[in-house]
Design brief:
homodimer; 322 residues; alpha/beta; Rossmann fold; 2 domains; seven-stranded parallel beta sheet; three-stranded antiparallel beta sheet; 13 helices; 39% helix
Chain lengths: 322, 322
């Protein structure tokens, strides 16, 4: 079975760990969001790709969900003494090595997809990890500060400002001109199932869908497309989905997110058991829906996520059989 | 008193520490060798400039003479796991930060001299540290390996090969086209004394002198030029001066090095007490010479170097008064 997953960072990575347990023989291609990518200290940092790579490769800091385990911060400390920032982005020494390798390869002319493949040679994530595009796409968030509107990089909105101010608009700068990375459209065309993990529907999955050709390819793939709600009980499980959903005029509810994707794209949708009241509304919108536990905070790594993946795949089969 | 010093790495840096003790009120400009510079992992590394900066700024690893104190090597470890080398160059985590800042500033368009000034803002070395040139100069060493001649970067010759093979030739690639960095010729023209510390006469001081205009400016400055022999008892105090001197056809002796610089450039020369037998020969070549202790391996940091600097400055005054 060939499965394509559109993934952001932590939510996508944890779901993928469960999916690998649930479907150990599946051929999984991950299309990773690169709209969160940022240049820091002259280095190219790809937070979502790295979170997937580190999580599936066994190098992730489990507690925080991003960055490397057994990490130290000497480089960052020194940069701060030089007065070179930003200080609000937590790059560890081990993590720096990844960005140094990536930047060096990009400077040598390799596209991001080839660089990602090379990095995965080490991590052996057990999935094929593709960036959504080799072209630069950078999600910016419009915010009002002291009565003035300004655009900040998504990482600045999320990490520095901690999404403490409202997002007035979310713009994936460069997306319109971007082309899907090599292999992306082919993977979608050859997929048996396409999954949207509980990643941010605006700045993660939404950014991937904003690359011309990807949304269309999914809609026309003719295979079940099943998503999992990142909103549980009217609040994001983690992150700032509520803020960026508001910016695009979508309620922060499991039902509204399903309707935002729409029945033209989505065939099935999983909501958490606390949201079981909205199953009918979603089904009325033409999307098959089930209410199951969607929290991935189990002590045994991947167990809850694996069960979620099993239910998602079962729902996909149900869609296929209908 | 305005003093100009042409410095390489460890020997130059340690002498400078002594000079600052010997002449605390002097206005010292250091013209640093950049022929050892190398690009590693996509980052610009300037070993000699950094050794001077770290030594005078209190951040040097005293035992090894280069690199940072209290250093860790996580980034390098990770790069090795990625299979990215070279592994033979010991870049520590704290040191990486310097190269990251430098590379980022260079990429932003600042010349090396401005970058060095910015880095020194932090280190406050108590001297004005100028790279010999903002242009790229890279010292290559021709070696015969398995019967074939090939050119290797100086760092590869010294750090990887540990100078275990003979140097057939030493070429400061790019030197002929290089221009002295802003301030270099001005500092020489305004100097009261010019000193050559016990740095390598070929790959350190020699490379600086290979930048068109610098040798001429020193010869024409009309002020005492005094050097200290890096060769003690027919062997270099440290490093591979013997190997690179052989490549340029110069004997590895205190006298031969003085004659290599020549009386057209050099007015005074200090040799170690073990070499007092050559004083007459050097004076016969038109260079005032004194034999004094030249080992800088004293337990009290800088004390021996300070005494060497005092004697060098005294010899300069003797030259001036002659």
């Amino acid at each position: 079975m060939r499965i394509v997953v559109l993934a952001g960072g932590i939510g996508g990575a944890r779901f993928l760990r469960g999916l690998k347990l649930a479907a150990p023989d599946a051929d999984i291609t991950v299309i990773g969001n690169t709209g969160d990518d940022i240049h820091l200290f002259g280095l190219k940092v790809c937070p979502d790709l790295d979170t997937v790579m580190y999580t599936l490769g066994g190098g992730i800091n489990e507690e925080q969900g991003w960055g490397r385990t057994d990490e130290t911060f000497k480089v960052k400390e020194e940069l701060a003494v030089y007065g070179v920032g930003p200080e609000w982005f937590g790059l560890g020494d081990r993590d720096f090595a990844t960005h140094i390798v990536r930047t060096q390869m990009l400077a040598a002319g390799f596209p991001l997809s080839a660089v990602t493949e090379a990095l995965c040679e080490r991590w052996q994530p057990g999935v094929r990890l593709l960036p959504m595009s080799d072209d630069r796409v950078e999600t910016h968030v419009a915010v009002d500060v002291d009565g003035e509107r300004k655009a900040v990089h998504f990482q600045e909105y999320w990490v520095r400002l901690r999404a403490s101010v409202d997002a007035q608009a979310v713009v994936p700068v460069g997306a319109e001109q971007a082309k899907p990375a090599p292999g992306v459209l082919e993977a979608i065309a050859e997929a048996d199932v396409i999954l949207f993990p509980p990643s941010n529907p605006v700045v993660s999955v939404g950014t991937i869908l904003a690359v011309p050709g990807i949304r269309e390819a999914i809609a026309e793939a003719g295979v079940p497309v099943v998503g999992l709600s990142p909103i549980v009980g009217d609040a994001p499980v983690r992150g700032m989905a509520d803020k960026v959903l508001a910016a695009v005029g979508v309620e922060s509810t499991a039902a509204a997110v399903a309707e935002h994707y729409g029945s033209g794209l989505l065939d099935g949708w999983l909501v958490d058991t606390v949201d079981k009241g909205v199953v009918e509304r979603i089904e009325a919108a033409g999307i098959r829906c089930r209410a199951v536990p969607l929290m991935m905070t189990d002590p045994e790594v991947g167990t809850a996520a694996a069960e979620m993946a099993r239910v998602a795949l079962a729902l996909a089969e149900e869609v296929r059989g209908a």
